[in-house]
Write a structure and sequence with these properties.
The structure holds two protein chains of two kinds. By secondary structure, chain A is of the alpha/beta class. Chain A has ten helices and ten strands. Chain A is 34% helix and 24% strand. Chain B is 76% helix and 3% strand. The chains are: A alpha/beta, B mainly alpha.
């Protein structure tokens, strides 16, 4: 029997400035696994994450964390209930040291040692202000900050943005390690194939709605299928043709498969 | 002249504290609070009304500080609830509107310059010692000690305590602070309440010297903003120094008969000089081309 989902969304809708961006999304995030959300730019992925974390208010549906409804809780109570959120862009507290970044988020049982084991460079720089770290190290600090709150579920939104491929691979490895530790991970990632490699289940959003859900294995390496899911029929054909005619150019950032030096791009 | 400058330090300590309150509100909750001294004056007049009604000074002081804290917390809660996602200038405009409203209500309740001057208790008015003919009133020492204590205390709170770390996180990234489990709205309202209470205490301290009418005391916001500008709305020690210098300047100007009546212009001159000084290196097309 499959384990009960750590995070379950049913019919969730989220608005931005009174405009519906996410509509009727139903998805489950299993404990100890990476669940991937894919979609083109503007599909509503970040709005969905903000809705789950409480930064945007869901207008419809229910969000359950370990079976308990959280959709009406303020963000800090969702965090205390066991929801970690690695926001898009680097959101380390730049004026605090690395250690202080971790301490402000630590819950009773949260352990700085686990973070330092995963990211030894953070321990070496623990007294340095986060603003002085490299982009990759800042992202490690943010991931570590989500970890010390002892979360049941971690939401990760485009953590590879602006990072070197080597660092992206390293962080993806850590995400897989988090899942191995029993944490449920909901991952949004611009490099679809990297996410699909470590993910177990994938959802694809188009115009705020789920247009596909299934095992990640179904979508691994299936760029044409991804284009079709991202853009729909005719647009997908155009995007695929564009990518074939100009292989060095991305048809869309949202449909890119891997970081530049790490492998071939989406056709 | 030296006596006047020394006496000006009493107000200077108060100005420094008011400036510190402006800086703290700005640093921690990102709002330039124009209503701050009106809220403090409101609490001070609640206190003096209670003493006039026969309540003892200390109980009145506590109740007055509590009323200022409550009023300030209500303003903070309103800003957190309805204006959290708005720009700084919108939030500042809300506090300007509240300043106007509170001043109108305060004048109505407690009277204006000619009708509403109250006698504030002045427990620290007596001279404490005389050095070479210069009389140092106790209020100077109390005011300076209070200002130094608050500067040091706030500095230690922000850098050495868990609450301070959370406050710093809140001031830097309010939304991120919330998603890492920091109760941002509650902390912000706490900051507003604390600032309201401290402002009221400072106003009670400076009221015997400045005159006990509502409009004068609520108008201290212009001085507080000038002092905060000295510290660039960021540095606590510079703000402290700015307040003391401003107090001394005011004291000195009160000693010279020909410029005495222009004493109220001193904060404006300080703001003007600082604006000029800070913008002296700017190039027109980069600084003003928006």
């Amino acid at each position: 029997m499959a384990a009960a989902p750590a995070l379950a969304l049913a019919g969730v809708g989220v608005d931005r400035a009174d405009v519906p961006v996410v509509r009727d999304v139903t998805l489950d995030v299993a404990p100890g696994a990476v669940t991937v959300v894919l979609g083109a730019n503007g599909a509503g992925k970040t709005t969905l994450m903000d809705g789950i974390a409480g930064l945007a208010r869901p207008t419809t549906g229910s969000i359950r964390l370990d079976g308990a409804p959280i959709e009406r809780l303020p963000p800090f109570k969702r965090a205390r209930a066991g929801l970690g959120y690695v926001e898009q862009a680097r959101t380390a507290f730049r004026t605090l040291t690395v250690e202080q970044n971790l301490l402000v988020a630590r819950s009773g049982s949260g352990d700085l040692g686990t973070v330092y084991r995963l990211f030894p460079e953070l321990e070496r720089r623990r007294h340095l202000h986060a603003g002085h770290l490299s982009g990759g190290e800042q992202q490690m600090a943010v991931l570590g900050r989500a970890l010390v709150s002892d979360p049941k579920v971690v939401l990760i939104d485009e953590m590879s943005l602006g990072l070197a491929p080597k660092v992206v691979h390293r962080l993806m490895g850590t995400v897989a390690e988090l899942a191995a530790m029993g944490i449920a991970v909901l991952l949004i990632e611009q490099f679809a194939n990297l996410a699909l490699e470590i993910g177990s289940r994938a959802y694809v959003l188009r115009k705020g709605r789920v247009v596909h859900s299934g095992p990640c294995a179904e979508l691994r390496g299936a760029e044409d299928r991804l284009h079709e899911l991202y853009f729909g029929g005719r647009l997908a054909d155009a995007a695929a043709r564009l990518a074939r005619e100009a292989p060095g150019r991305e048809a869309s950032r949202g449909a890119s498969a891997e970081p530049p030096e790490a492998g071939s791009r989406t056709p | 002249m030296v006596n006047s400058v020394i006496a000006g330090l009493t107000s200077g300590g108060g100005y420094a504290l008011l400036g510190l309150c402006v800086v703290l509100t700005y640093r921690l909750v990102a709002v330039v609070n124009f209503a701050m001294t009106a809220v403090g004056a409101f609490g001070a007049f609640v206190m003096v009304s209670l003493t006039d009604a026969g309540l003892d000074v200390w109980s009145s002081l506590v109740l007055g500080a509590a009323s200022a804290a409550l009023l300030s917390a209500a303003l903070g809660a309103a800003l957190v609830r309805w204006f959290a996602g708005h720009r700084e200038r919108t939030k500042a405009a809300v506090t300007v509107a509240l300043y106007v409203a509170l001043t109108a209500v305060g004048l109505r309740l407690f009277g204006g310059t000619t009708t509403g001057a109250h006698r504030f208790p002045d427990p620290f008015g007596a001279p404490v010692f005389t050095v070479g003919g210069v009389v140092v009133p106790r209020s100077v020492l109390v005011s300076l000690a209070f200002a130094a204590l608050i500067t040091l205390g706030v500095g230690l709170l922000l850098t050495r305590t868990g609450l301070g770390l959370r406050l710093q996180a809140l001031s830097e990234r309010p939304a991120t602070a919330e998603v890492v489990g920091i109760p941002a709205p509650r902390l912000a309202v706490g900051v507003w309440a604390g600032v309201g209470a401290v402002t009221m205490l400072v106003i009670v301290l400076v009221a015997p010297r400045l005159g006990g009418d509502f409009s004068t005391l609520s108008g201290l916001i212009s001085t507080a903003l000038a002092v905060a500008m000295v510290g660039a709305f960021r540095s606590l020690p510079l703000t402290l120094a700015g307040g003391l210098v401003l107090g001394c300047l005011e004291g000195a100007s009160s000693a010279v008969e020909s410029i005495q009546k222009y004493q109220g212009v001193v904060p404006f001159l300080v703001i003007l000089v600082l604006l000029w000084w800070r913008s002296r290196g700017e190039v027109w097309d980069t600084a003003h081309s928006r």
